[in-house]
Amino acid sequence: MLQLSQRYEPYVVRALETLWGKSRERAGGTTNLLMAHLLDTAAAAEVLWDSFLACSVQAALDELAGGPGRGRRLFAWLCGIHDCGKATPTHQRLWAEGAESVRRSGLTWVERAAVAGARQQKRWRHDWAGGLIARDVLAEAGWAAEQVDWVWPLVAGHHGAFPTLRDVQEPSHAKGQLRGRGEWRRVQQAALEVFTREVGFGVLGEVEPVAAPSRALQLQLSGLVVMADWIASDERFFVGLDDLQLVSLDASRERAATAWTALGLHSGWGDLAVPGPETFKERYGYAPRPLQDMAVEAARRMDGPGLQVIEAPMGEGKTEAAQAVAELLASRFGADGVFVGMPTQATSDPMFTRTRRWVGAIDGHLASRVVLLHGKRAFNQEWKNLLGSDGSSSGEAFGGVDEFGLGDDPYGVGPQACGATERQAPAEWFLGPKRGLLAPFVVGTVDQLLYAATRTRHVMLRMAGLAGKVVILDEVHACDVYMSQFLREALRWLGQAGVPVVVLSATLAPAQRQALVESYVTGAVSREEMSVEVPAAAGYPCVTTACVSDAGLPQVLVQSTDSWRKDLQVAVRIVSESLPGVRSSREDRERLQGEADARVGELLTRELVDGGTALVIRNSVARAQSLYEELRRRFAHHEVRLLHARFTVARRADLTEDSLRLLGPNTPRPQGGRLIVVATQLAEQSFDVDADVLVTDLAPVDLLLQRVGRLHRHESTWRPERLRTPRVFVTGLDPREGREPAFPYASEMIYGRHLLMRTATVLPDAEEGWSIPGMVPGLVEKVYGADASLLPEAWREAGEVACREQEDRDRARADNARTFLLTPQGEHERRTLVGLHYGGSTAGSDEGALQAAVRDGEESVEVVLVAQESEGAIFRTLAGRALSVNGDVAPDLLDEVLGSVVRLPSKFTEPALKLRPLPGWLGHSWLGKCRALVLDASHRAQLGDATVTYDEEFGFRQLQ
Fold first, then answer.
1. Residue 782 contacts by C-beta under 8 Å, 6 or more apart in sequence?
2. Residues facing 629 on adjacent strands
3. SS3 sequence, 258-295?
4. Spatial contact of 208 and 146, defined as CB atoms under 8 Å apart
5. What is the pTM (predicted TM-score) of this model?
6. What's residue 396's pLDDT?
7. Is pLDDT larger for residue 874 or for residue 419?
């Protein structure tokens, strides 16, 4: 930058020598000039290009820039200009020392007007100012309006939200004193020109892209801009430079290379070779089964990135099929990593292990790059071992690993806004706030993907994290009407971004399958609506593949094959129970529930007379606890287990592991031994067990079939003679003579009467059964179809009422979800990100608020359980270990205390919200955000008007 005096007036040169980008307090003790920070960010972007971006993203940027090899420089420029708005009074006035230096250089402003403008619009800061400057300067440089219109929002939105064009106009009360007038305008133009030449362009006109990117690519680019800015803002590696003579792109490159190495950042598997026919056996040790072979070959024939839906029963090898397809699609279309989305935290943990094993088989050193992304990962032993420590972190709040609640510091003058990350972690930078999806390989709950479809701050980081990956989504049938709105919105964006997606499900209703395909394809062609014909599968298991041809036409292929196992002939019997009416007394409810439990107890005593294993699934925790109490009286203590969501997280993890071990396919079964696991819906998804007999409450048919999938999974498992025919006993309904059946209140609240009634009609007669999995598609299609004649004549009037109730409820829930969607209905064909965060409800930024946005339901609260024998006594853990009078937690007790978290039923939300941390927890990075529920010596507490209790056998309960 030694030739500036030959190009610019002295006041311009003085300004560039003075304008600050980071204050001394944020730049290692030395002011960092604005020009230095712009170039630092451009250099960080170059490193991202060379060592992080997937080939698919590079190819898209090359296309924007005019051909192969041109995208890198454009990308560096786009990232670097993000803070051009700091060349304004609105930023320079914020740090007294820097403001004085700027005034001495000759640039001034009227502080009274600037204050008035800031009061009028508090959000008008350097990001919005930068958007306005970029818009004006690029237009003056001759850029086409189409190109200007997508670039300026990247600048204006780099602090997490995209404003409208009206927003970025300078507040009228400022009278030009926030953006700056006169000489300020010349300095702003010069800053962009100098930066542009330093990056390698001649003039601003040369930078103009030859094409406009899709909105999805714009959103991903925006996230990468933020990532580059964050790296370049790390004062450990980018110590301030206050001498313009020392500022250059070469100097910034040295700093960026040092930062990249020190931060341990890395890409994924890189340029993968296309897997051959032998690869599957090399990865998994056996030849592909028919479904797996069909899925891989279908992916091999795809003309471009697309969607593949794999439907097969449990035990068919869907996970291995998805992994093989993902590897193939990544190699063909330039993806560099994978995101695996699971329905729950509990199902994410075993998938974390399987994903590490898979990527490690591709390249041994990749296994350490897999990140587990959910709020309870600190309790996953494999994750803790991977970190090489206890997995805790002073900067990771227990409420969520990826929260947005840390204060945004748009001025760059406050303390570092990023908390400390997890100790000794591989790819430690990726574990900081907001960054989880940016890691190359991620396993987490599907919520992490759904968050990318919400109107939230920094949503661009989530979309940037999905760029260049293959997305695998398991158990998508678990997404209800509400969550499905976010899933479809996410698929639209992924389709437009060219991100391959593999969806797994035991089975889908035809309407669900249609919606998934249409969402992805509609996004891929950037349309608001599009009708796509999805043929019905001729058999089961089946694979549906959808992509868009070079001509922009949807291509859908549906194939089916035989299962690798013979169909199971499953006997299905109804165990009726009398149910209380609306006006029944508590005594009547308890009596009827006791009678129902006794009937199940008698049934299991009879079925397990020669030994064997039984899985019992109840639709509510209360029903599970009640039945468990009955079974304890009939069977030995070691023969009955209880598993539900109202145990503490540590206890629940132990019980889950214990159940999986005892009912697992590889556990020897002692002849004559008996085991009963009573569970809730936790046993419905990715619960790898092999039971001899199943007792289950009625649920919608697809979920009921999921439960049946836990039965007789392995021919090698020893079973008593009487249990060698798989039996299912359906509880939770009262078949009433001459009218529709009755269902427990909890079942109706969870699933609705409509689907329960239709499922009840397809239950086989006493002498018949189901052939599984052969009958699965037909059963699902019947229940989820619209044929009113499925119901017996005597049920139809009630069925019509239930159907209308369900339609109304579904419509209301879908409408409620749409208020949080990233793109409002009717705006999917917009060309830029302008105003993306405006026009509807905005979801909160922390993990709890995000979960509330994507998972419809009554709010519930997590609390930490501690004990105190009497008022004023020391607090203790549930196991009786001493804390202190104030509840202070010694380091060796932290895991035990955090393991005592339990989620309360929603009816206790109001009194639970009044609970506070113990005095000794205040200021602690994890416990400081936790509510404490203090139990007495008997482990009881008063919560609102109710008396509640907790014990290791039943979990959390309300006492009558």
1. 701, 758, 762, 790
2. none
3. HHHHHHCCCCCCCCCCCCCCCHHHHHHCCCCCHHHHHH
4. no
5. 0.90
6. 34
7. 874
Neighbours of 365 (CB within 10 A): 10
Can you tell me which residue has the tokens 């304008």?
Answer: 19
Which tens digit of pLDDT belongs to each residue from 617-667?
999 999 999 999 999 999 999 999 999 999 999 999 899 889 988 988 778
* First vs last C-alpha separation in the chain: 79
Please write the tens of the pLDDT for every residue from 105-163: 999 999 999 999 999 999 999 999 999 999 999 999 999 999 999 999 999 999 999 99
Taking all residues of the chain, what is their mean pLDDT, rounded to a whole number? 90
Do strands 862-867 and 901-903 pair parallel, antiparallel, or not at all (unpaired)? antiparallel
Tokens found for residue 883: 């804390």
Residue 868's CB: how many other CB atoms inside 10 A? 20
> Tokens 């979801």 label which residue?
843
Q: Which residues contact 159 (CB under 8 A, 6 or more apart)?
A: 125, 127, 408, 410
Distance separating alpha carbons of residues 58 and 175, to the nearest angstrom: 43
Per-residue pLDDT at 421: 34
Of how many residues is the chain composed? 960
Sign of the dihedral through C-alpha 411, 412, 416, 422: positive
CB atoms within 10 A of CB 3: 9
Spell out the alpha helix ranges (H) of 159-271.
Answer: 183-199, 204-207, 215-232, 249-263
Cβ atoms of 200 and 73 within 8 Å: the answer is yes
For the record, the structure tokens of 552 come out as: 């922009």
Please state, in angstroms and rounded to a whole number, the distance separating the CA atoms of residues 411 and 482.
Answer: 38
Q: What is the dihedral sign for C-alpha 604, 607, 611, 616?
A: negative
Q: Would you say residue 100 has pLDDT above 70? A: yes
Question: CB neighbours of 30 closer than 8 A, spacing ≥ 6?
Answer: 24, 239, 240, 241, 242
- Residues linked to residue 951 through DSSP beta bridges, in sequence order: 955
- Is residue 708 a contact partner of residue 550, using CB atoms and an 8 Å limit? no
Give the per-residue SS3 of 326-360.
HHHHHHHHCCCEEEEEECCHHHHHHHHHHHHHHHH
Q: Which two three-digit tokens encode residue 436? A: 């989880």
pLDDT of residue 313: 87
Query: What is the residue type of 363?
Result: D
Would you say 314 and 706 are in contact if contact means Cβ atoms under 8 Å apart?
yes
Residues 279, 268: Cα–Cα separation, whole Å: 19
281 Cα distance to chain centroid: 31
795: burial class by Cβ within 10 Å (0-12, 13-18, 19+)? Answer: buried
Q: Cα(510)–Cα(777) distance, rounded to whole angstroms?
A: 9
Ramachandran class of 160: left when φ > 0, alpha when ψ lies in -120 to 50, beta otherwise:
left
709/773 Cα distance (integer angstroms): 9
Segment 175-206, tens digit of pLDDT = 999 999 999 999 999 999 999 999 999 999 99
Question: What's the number of CA atoms in the CB half-sphere (13 Å) around residue 367?
Answer: 15
CA distance 20 to 95: 9
Q: Any residues with CB less than 8 A from the CB of 815 and at least 6 apart, and which?
A: none
CB neighbour class for 366 (10 Å; exposed up to 12, middle 13-18, buried from 19): buried
Residue 338 phi, psi (nearest 5): -150, 145
Q: Say which residue, 707 or 845, is predicted with more confidence.
A: 707
Which residue, 117, 87, 98, 282, is CA-closest to 191? 87
Non-local (6+) Cβ contacts of 125 within 8 A are: 85, 90, 91, 159, 410, 411
Would you say 863 and 932 are in contact if contact means Cβ atoms under 8 Å apart?
yes
Q: Which amino acid is at 580?
A: P
> Which residue, among 80, 130, 102, 16, has the nearest Cα to 8 in the 3D structure?
16
d(CA 224, CA 470): 18
d(CA 787, CA 778): 13
Q: Which of these, 614, 750, 759, 600, lies nearest to 681 by C-alpha position?
A: 750
